[in-house]
Design brief:
This protein is of the alpha/beta class. The protein is built from 16 helices and eleven strands. The strands form two sheets. The protein has a six-stranded mixed beta sheet with strand order 3-4-2-5-1-6, sandwiched between helices. Strands 7-11-8-10-9 form a five-stranded mixed beta sheet, sandwiched between helices.
Length: 405
């Protein structure tokens, strides 16, 4: 069933329609990790009345864009064009969702592309380190795997498997949102504002320190460190306090990570926080990369910062600044219509009505240092650690980590 919503945005000379299909790579069955990524790519490679080339040519003839992307919790397909051409292009979405061609020739191309992308992905030590980290944190949970899939699984996926997956796909809930009133959808601004209590999966902690650490031995002069844990669902009331924590740690040059690692000691190549929106328990991790010579010192700094979050509430002045930066980031995200539509329809699929700027600021203002302190102790007292670097350095860091955590 397709539920339609209209976003009464400021008058623009173009229209966008975005469909969110509930269920993405989390729907991949055991032994077929990557099948929904293949299906997602195939959907936009031809539909009733159009083969792959005809569809591309038709869309490009109107200067329009057709995009698709797979997430852990859903599949996004969107089309954007000038208002004058929207009524000619909008019907394509129904055809793509309900009557895709799913060509066997295109299936072979997409399958090969997925395998090639995984091989390329594994050339990046950051990606490998992250894969190790989330595999430890989530074990056999769907979030433990990349949305692209696993190369061994993909190599065994057949054309029939994809057709069977499409039968499953047809029964999934689908949500459409557009800034064009011609879609005849419910005005999303009139939805009842509701914030559901936490319904995340239970934390998958294994308190054995051996099972909370992993490393990858590499020959480069770079050490990558990732440390964190799973947290809460976007549906949880704990989401916004954790966003304030993310802002405190990583937003701008006033952020705690920047001041500690770059401004004071100047030792990192890359650093930040990864905290995406998820329907289930979202990952929250600090990542950084340093030279091998600075790796042990960097880990000591990170450990000190981490312990400080566990034992001392953040100063009120720092919380105030973090809130202001967070509000600014939300305003920045509201400059792009595509981002606004994507975010709103994703929230609706999670069972959350989009929140107004006034209500959003009100919720952020209510957050205190004590609220964040409680959450750091709830989620980060037994963090998971993944390192990519020289074996001896990794093992030395591991020994220090075991003593500290």
């Amino acid at each position: 069933m397709l539920k339609k919503y209209f976003l009464d945005n400021k008058k623009r000379n173009f229209s966008t329609a975005s469909i969110w299909i509930k269920g993405g790579s989390d729907m991949d069955s055991t032994g077929k990790k990557g099948i929904n990524k293949i299906l997602c790519s195939l959907l936009t490679r031809g539909c009733e009345g159009f083969n792959n080339f005809n569809l591309s040519e038709y869309i490009e003839s109107y200067g329009a864009e057709l995009n698709q992307e797979i997430f852990e919790d859903g599949i996004s397909i969107s089309i954007k064009s000038l208002n004058d051409h929207f009524n000619k292009l909008y019907p394509l979405l129904d055809l793509i969702i309900d009557k895709p061609t799913l060509s066997q020739i295109e299936f072979k191309k997409v399958k090969k592309s997925s395998i090639d992308f995984i091989k390329k992905d594994r050339e990046n030590p950051f990606n490998i380190c992250f894969e190790k980290w989330r595999k430890k944190v989530y074990s056999n949970h769907p979030y433990a795997f990349s949305t692209i899939g696993i190369a061994d699984d993909i190599s065994k996926i057949t054309y029939k498997d994809v057709l069977d997956e499409f039968n499953n796909f047809k029964s999934r809930d689908k949500y459409l949102i557009s800034n064009n009133p011609e879609i005849n959808g419910e005005n999303i601004g009139t939805l009842e504002k509701k914030f559901l209590k936490e319904k995340s999966d239970p934390l998958n902690h294994n308190l054995n320190t051996i099972n909370r650490f992993d490393y990858i031995d590499n020959d480069s002069n770079q050490t990558i460190i990732m440390m964190g844990d799973q947290t809460c669902s976007r549906r949880s009331s704990e989401y916004f306090p954790l966003k304030v924590l993310e802002s405190y740690l990583s937003y701008g040059m006033s952020a705690a990570l920047f001041k500690l690692f770059r401004e004071k000691h100047g030792i990192t190549y890359d650093l930040g926080v990864y905290y995406p929106i998820r329907s289930g328990n979202a990952p929250f991790l600090i990542y950084l990369s340093v030279s091998n010579e600075q790796a042990l010192f960097a880990f000591e700094l990170l450990s000190k910062l981490w312990k400080n979050l566990l034992f001392n509430p953040i100063a009120d002045a720092e919380i105030f600044l973090a809130k202001e930066k967070l509000k600014g980031s939300f305003l920045l995200g509201n400059q792009s219509l595509d981002e606004i539509l994507q975010r709103n329809i994703q929230l609706v699929s999670y069972g959350i009505a989009p929140i107004s700027e006034i209500d959003l600021n009100s919720k952020i203002e209510e957050i205190s240092s004590v609220d964040i302190f409680k959450l750091t102790n709830k989620y980060f007292s037994k963090p998971f650690l993944s390192i990519s670097g020289n074996k001896n350095i990794c093992l030395e860091i591991s020994n220090k980590w075991k003593k500290n955590f």
